[in-house]
Queue: 2 jobs
Job 1
Amino acid sequence: MDLMTALQILDSTVRLGTPLLLACLAGLYSERAGIFDIGLEGKMLMAAFFSGAVAFVTGSVWLGLIAGIAGAMSLAVVHGLASITFRGNQLISGVAINFLASGLTVLIGQKWFALGGRTPALSGEGRFQPIVLPFADSLRDVPVIGPVYYELISGHTALVYVAFAAVPISWWLLFRTRFGLRLRAVGENPAAVDTAGISVTRLRYAAVAIAGLLTGIAGAYLATGLSAGFVKEMTAGRGFIALAALIFAKWRPVPALGATMLFGLLEAVANRYQNIDLGGVVIPVQAMQALPYVLTVIILAGFVGKAIPPRAGGEPYVKER
Amino acid sequence: MPVMTHLLGAAATLALTAGGALADPALIFDLGGKFDKSFNEAAFNGAQRWKAETGGSYKELEMQSEAQREQALRRLAETGANPIVMTGFAFGDVLNTIAPDYPDTKFAIIDAVVDQPNVRSVVFHEEQGSYLVGMMAAMASKTGTVGFVGGMDIPLIRKFACGYVQGAKAANPEVKVIQNMTGTTPAAWADPVKGGELAKAQIAQGADVIYAAAGSTGLGVLQAATDEGILSIGVDSNQNHLHPGKVLTSMIKRVDISVYEAFTAGAALETGMIAMDLAKDGVGYALDEHNAALVTPEMKAAVDAAAARIVAGEVTVHDYMTDNTCPVN
C-alpha cells in the first residue's frame, strides 16, 4: 500500500468518522449528565431532513444547518420533557424519538416535496463545499507532509473542522470548568448537586440541549456535506454505532475521537477492499462490518479495561421520596 | 356439445370480467418506497398509466418494515382486491404461504418465482440489460477500469453485477471491474452516504464509469460520480435526467409494463412464469436528450448489435441465479 492509497483511506475515514464523532459527543454530554440517549439516530435523521429541505428551499446551506439544529433540538426537548420533567423511562423515550423521526421525516417530506420523503437534490450554495486550507496548493509538492496536508487535512467541509474542534472544547468544558464539574456530578450523584443548591433539572436540560445541537450538526453534515439531500432512513444506524463508540471511549471526549475514527477507518477499509487477503487467509467484508460491534462487546465484557457508565445514568431524579 | 362448452366458457369469462370490474387491482411497493426514482417508481408509473388509460382506480400500499408483508397481503386479499401485484423478491416466501388461502384472488410478483396456481411470477433478465450497459461502460472508460456498486448483497444484485462484468469484458477483455456491495441488511438500499464513499473509493482506484444497482444508495453513487467528474450508470428507471450529461445511460427494467399488463388483465390474469428479456423489451438501456452527447455512434452500434445477437440466441449471457457463480469477475 503506497502513501496515496493510505491517504485516500484516511481521508474517507475522516468523512465517515465525523458524523459518528459528533453523535458520540452528543451522547457523551447527555449520558454524563445522567440521561441515556438512544435517540441519537432519530435526532440526526430529523436534522438531516430539515437541513436538506431548508437548504433546498432557501438555497443557503447555513440556513439549512440552522434548521437542522432546530429540528434535532426540538426532539431533544421532547426527550428532556419525557425523561427529566416527567421522569419517564429514558430508553423508551429514546426509542419513541427514533420512531417519531423515522415516520415524521418521510411524512413531512412527502407532503412538502412529493418525492416520497426524499428532498430534491442540492447543488452549489445548497451544499457545504470543501475548504482548501491556506498553503495547501503551494505545499502540495513537499514530500510526505505536502500530500498529507493537501489530501488529508485540507479539503473537508467546514463541519468536519467543527467536529474536530469540538473534542478539545468538550474536554475543557467537562473537565476544566465549573459547569463541567457540575454536569458530571449530576450524572454521578444528583442528590449531592441538589444539596449544594444547584438545579439538577436545569443542568440536565443543558446537557440534553447540547446533545441536540451536536446531533443537529451531525445530521446536517450527512445531508448537506456528504450527500446532496435527504433520503429516508439515511442515517442507516450511525446513531447506534456512535453509542457503541461512546462505550468504547468510556464516556471521555478524547478517546471518543479515537473510537469514532477507528470505526470510520474500519468502514473505509471495508469500502476500499471487499475481501482482504492476508497470505492465504481471506477476511470477508462482513467481518470488517461487524468489527465495531464485536469490539464494543469485548470492551463491555471487561477484557480491555472496564467501562463504567455514569452512576446515576438512566434514573430520573426525584427530589424527595 | 362443443358449442355448449363454448357458451359455458364465454359465460364463465363474462362472469369473471364482471367480477373484475368490481374489484380494484392493488399494488404493494417494497421497502425502497414508491418514489425511489428506480424500481418501485417504475411500478408506480405502470399503475398510473393504467389509471390514466382506463380511468379505473387501484389500491396501493407501501411497506414500512419487513414484518408487515404478510398482514398487508392478507388485508388486501380480504378487501377483495384482484389482482394484487407486489414488487420485490422479499415477498416470495410470504406469498408462497398466503396464496393458497385465497384461491380466488390472483397475485403477481415481480422479481421472484412463486409456484402456486394463482400466482404470476415475473422475472427480468437483468443480466442482459446489465451486459449492454457493461459494454457501454467499458467503451466509455478511458482508464480501462469501471466500477459496480450493488445494494444489499443478494443473488439478484450479483446477477446485475455478473451481467455487467460479462458485457464490459466483451467490449474490452482487458477491462478491470471493481465491485462493491453496500451491505447485507435492507438498510443497504437507503444509504447514499455510504454509496458516495464506495464510489469515491472506486474512483481512487481508477474507475471512471460506475454502475449503481442499489436503490436510493445509488443516488449517492451518481452524486459522487458527478462531483468527481466521472460517468455513472443508473438502474431500473431511466435516471439519466438526475445529472444531465453525467449519467452515461441507465439499465432500464420495464417493471411498469409488467404492472400495466397485470392491471389490464384484471381478474383474468394468466398465471405462471413470465420472463421479461431483451426480446420482449423487458430490459434495455436508456437513450434520451440527457445522454445523447455521451453515447457515441460506435457505442450505440456495438450495443445494438450485441442486443440483436442476444435476442437471436447467438450470445448467451450467464444468469448468476441459475448456479450462484459468475464465470468472470
Job 2
Amino acid sequence: MPNLRFTEKPLSDWMQKGGEYSDVVISSRVRIARNLIHHPFPILANMEQAQDVRNQLTEVLSNQALQDLGPFEPLLLDELEDVDRQVLMEKHLISPNLLNDSKSGAVLLTDDESVSIMVNEEDHLRIQCLYPGFQLQEAWERATQIDDAFEEVVDFAFDDRRGYLTSCPTNVGTGLRVSVMLHLPALAIMNQVGRVLSAVSQVGLAVRGLYGEGSEAIGNIFQISNQITLGLAEEEIIDNLHSVVLQLIEYEQHARSRLLSESKLRVTDRIMRSYGILSYSTMMDSKEAFQRISDVRLGVDLGLIDKASVTQMNELTIMTQPGFLQKTFGVKMGSGESDMYRAQLIRNTLSNVNVQD
Amino acid sequence: MICQECQVRPATLHFTKIVNGEKNEFHICETCAREKGELIPGTSGGFSIHSLLSGLMDFDSSSKGQLAGQCSEDVHCEECGMTYTQFRKLGRFGCSSCYKTFDNQLDPLFKRVHGSTSHAGKLPKRSGVKVKIKRQMSDLKQELKERIAEEEFEEAAHLRDEIRELEKQISQES
C-alpha cells in the first residue's frame, strides 16, 4: 500500500521554511541525471529491464549512507491512483514526463519532500533537491552527497571524456540542471519582464513557465535554469546562474520600490480588487486564479495587505490545480465544474483567516 | 461547422495556410488534423527538444557530402541495437555504449549544444580514481613524446618509469 501522506497536504514541509530572498525567489532546485552502466536507457528498456533498474535502485535505499541522507520512501507510480500521480506532479515532486511516459517509474521521497529522486524518467536516476528561497549552494551540496551515496553501491555510466552519460545529449557531462522559480510581478506590471528575460536567454540560460519544459508562464512565475551541462564544472554552472538571478532580484526589487513610490494607490487598488475577486467569486479558471494570487502575494510582500499570507498564497497555487481540486472534493470534474470548485476552495481558504507569517 | 475533411465531426481547428503565396483556409476536426500531420498548437507531439536536436545533427552529412552521411548511418550500437539514423530521429541515446559507437559524430553536436566537447566537472569517487590516473598518464605520455623529439633521453627514461608506475596502479585498482 503506497503512502498517501505525500498527496494529502498541498505544501511540502520544506516550503514552509522561507529562505533567503523569499519575496522574489520562491524556490531553488538542483537536479542531477545519472544512469547505470550495462542497462539500456529508459527510452529503449523493455518492461523487464525497467523493472530491474527500479528494483536495483530501490534496494540500495537501505544502504547506511542513503539512510543518513534520507531516509527515502519509494512510491511506485503504477501502484498509485491517477489523481495521486497528478498531485505529485502539481507539487513538483515528479515531472510531467515521469507521469505520462515512464515504464516502471518510481519516486523516492524524503519525509519533508525536499528531496525527490525519480527512477526511470528520461534517465535511470534523477536526483532532485528543492529548497525554499534562494539556496542553490545548499541544494547542490545535498544532491551531490546523495549522488556519492548511490555511487558507493551502484556503477554509473561515466566516460573519461564525456563525463556522466545521459539519454539526452543536452544533459551529458555534469548531468546538472539548476533552476530557480522567480515571482516577478512588479517587472510584469511595468512591462519590463520580456526585455529582462530575453537578456537572460542571451547569456545561455533558459526561461520557462511554472511546470518546466514547454509550459507557459502564468501568475508571473518564471523558471530560470542553465542550458549547458558539458565543459563547465558544477560550481561554475551554479555561480553563473547565481549571479544572473541576483541581478534579476535587484531589478524586481527596484521595480517594486518604484511602484510604491510612483503609483502606490493604483497598485493597492489592483491588489485589493484581486483579493476581493478571490474572496467572493463563484467561478474562476486557473489562469485568472494564478494572476489574482500573484497580485495578492505582491501585496503581502509590499506590506499593503494584512489579510493574507505568503504561505496561504503558496498553498493556493498548488491547491487550485486540477489534480488537487479533484483530490480535495473527491469528484471527477469537467472544466466548468472545476472552475466552480476552484472558486469555492479559494473562498474557503481566504475566509479561514489564519495568518501565521 | 462540419470538418471539411471527414464531413462528420465538428470542425474544431480553423487556420490559414500560405504555401508559395497561395492562401488557403482550413476548417477541420482534430482527428483529421492529426492524420494530415498538421501541427496542433497546445498539444505535445509535433515538436520537442529532441526534434530540434535531430536538426542539429543533420548538418554533418550535408557538409561532408553524401558519402560520409551514408557510412555513419550504417553504424549501430552493439549493446542496444540503436542505429545512427534512429539516434538522429529520436535525439536520444539508447544506452551508455551509444556514446562510443557514435563517437565520430558527437563532437560537432556537443559543440553546438554546449560549446564544448569534454567534461570538466565532478568525477565518480570509485571509478573516478582510475580516470584521474588515466588523465595523468596521458599528460605524461604527451610529455614523453616531446622529450624524445628533443632527444632528452634521460628525462624521457624518467617519465617512462613514472608511466609504468601509474600503469601498475591501474591494474591493481581493477
